[in-house]
Amino acid sequence: MAEKVRIGTVAEFSDGTLHGVKAGGTPIIVGLVDGSLHAARNHCPHLGLSLTTGPGGTRFTDGTVQCPWHNSTFNLCTGENLDWTPGFAGRTMPRWSSKLIALGKKPAPLTVYPVTVEGEDAFVEI
Ligand code: FES
Description:
With about 130 residues, the protein is mainly β. The protein has 1 helix and 13 strands; from the N terminus they run E-E-E-E-E-E-E-E-E-E-H-E-E-E.
């Protein structure tokens, strides 16, 4: 059963960057997309690594999260995988190499969580 967990104030997440926070004991990412907050597990479905800590740095543009390890991209609102292992550490590699970089793992989505706002506070259902 989902648990509703306060993650902070709306103002804390309104700067357009991707935030890594904990909801209960679960690491999540939170970002603002078209005026609404969205959240997902801070766990890349490729190798389970952090989406906010890695050699490529945190990358978040127009609702798209890019993994700092092998550059896979995801829609933060839906979790959909948009590109799978196209490079390394923020650098694009030749397209033929993406299957090698994938290490046999198939494309998979992020785990997303609903975000609700009550007054000035933001909550995720996790
Ligand atoms: S760990 Fe994220 S793309 Fe490899």
